[in-house]
Design goal:
The protein is an alpha+beta fold. It contains seven helices and eleven strands. The chain has two domains: about 5-160; about 170-310. It has helices at about 15-20, 105-120, 145-160, 190-205, 215-240, 245-270, 275-290, and strands spanning about 25-30, 35-45, 45-55, 60-65, 70, 75-80, 100, 125-130, 135-140, 170-175, 185-190. The strands form two sheets. It has an eight-stranded antiparallel sheet, covered by helices on one side. The protein has a three-stranded mixed sheet with strand order 5-11-10.
């Protein structure tokens, strides 16, 4: 475990807020309760939260939550020897870490761009999963103050430097598990990217044996349909990010895919397919439909096309 400067154990919420503001964040809220201190802020269009928690027996630790870029895979970059499935472990992880992901090639592209080296000393860990979303976390005995806020904000900027840029005329957010906490698993990206990510999360659950019974013929048919939807969504996401699809046509294609999924789910339910998987897929489709519901604030006017634009299941600390 890395050693931290002694000053990192001295709480100073006001100093942390000042550091976030100086670092380009727009603070929207803060809280100072008995066991949790937090700062909510916007950074380059992303709604983030810095928080400090004092769990029993472990000492203080801090974390920075940020929206999961939809183009990124699940990632667990943790201390060596972490209790992860051998199926998804990186056999040659970054120095000083264990790394696990269902898409190790994409995960290495994220952490090898500088984060793993910068987070080795002082020590920080990265987790991106369907329940907690994206989180940079310290070891124990660290609290929120100006120094720790600057440290975490610097690591976040290092990560986001390799994330796809936000497209204000198309980017949306969704929750991977909307039935749980309001902020659980927040995913952000273009409509097509986020739909693809939500479907992929459901498919990962099937692969882990959590969401369907492989012995049911109807469930097998539903999984095959899910694979087809993922392929279609992946193609739409690639077109959207590459700027090769008209903006209006791209949005319409995402809506049409969501409607197709919704209709197919109704037929699958009638055939007796796995109800839990159907419910989870319907929740994802509901997120898609909600993107085009009327909002109080008028969004930024989109361009005619995108061609003119530049281009757990992991463990949680308790």
């Amino acid at each position: 475990m890395s050693s931290y400067p002694d000053a990192w154990a001295e709480p100073d919420l006001a100093g942390a807020i000042a550091a976030v503001t100086a670092g380009g964040g727009r603070v929207t809220d803060s809280s100072d309760r008995k066991t949790v201190r937090s700062i909510e802020f916007l950074l380059d269009g992303r709604a983030c939260t810095l928080w400090e928690r004092t769990p029993k027996r472990r000492g203080e630790w801090v974390a920075l939550d940020f929206p999961w870029p939809a183009a990124w895979p699940d990632i667990a970059l943790d201390e060596p020897g972490g209790p992860y499935s051998e199926t998804y472990n990186d056999p040659n992880p970054p120095e000083g870490f264990a790394l696990a992901s269902m898409d190790l090639t994409a995960a290495r592209a994220v952490v090898d761009a500088g984060f793993a080296a910068a987070a080795r000393e002082p020590r920080a860990e990265l987790s991106i999963d369907s329940f907690d979303g994206a989180m940079i976390t310290s070891d124990p005995r660290v609290v929120l103050n100006a120094e720790t806020a600057r440290w975490l904000l610097g690591l976040l900027r290092l990560l986001l430097a390799v994330a796809p840029p936000l497209l204000p005329y198309d980017d949306v957010t969704a929750r991977s598990l909307p039935g749980f906490e309001p902020a659980s698993g927040v995913v952000q990206g273009t409509r097509a990217e986020v739909l693809h990510r939500l479907l992929t999360i459901r498919r990962h659950g099937v692969a882990l044996g959590l969401d369907s019974d492989p012995d049911e013929v109807a469930s097998i048919a539903l999984v095959e349909a899910l694979d087809r939807w993922i392929t279609t969504a992946a193609a739409l996401a690639a077109e959207s990010r590459a700027g090769s699809a008209d903006y209006v046509a791209s949005r319409q294609a995402v809506r049409e895919l969501a409607r197709r999924i919704d209709g197919d789910l109704g037929r699958a339910e009638a055939d007796g397919a796995d109800s839990d998987l159907i419910d989870e897929l319907r929740s994802s489709v509901a997120e898609v439909f909600a993107w085009d519901e009327p909002v109080a604030v008028k969004p930024t006017a989109p361009p005619a096309t995108t061609k003119d634009k530049p281009g757990r299941w992991w463990r949680r600390r308790d």
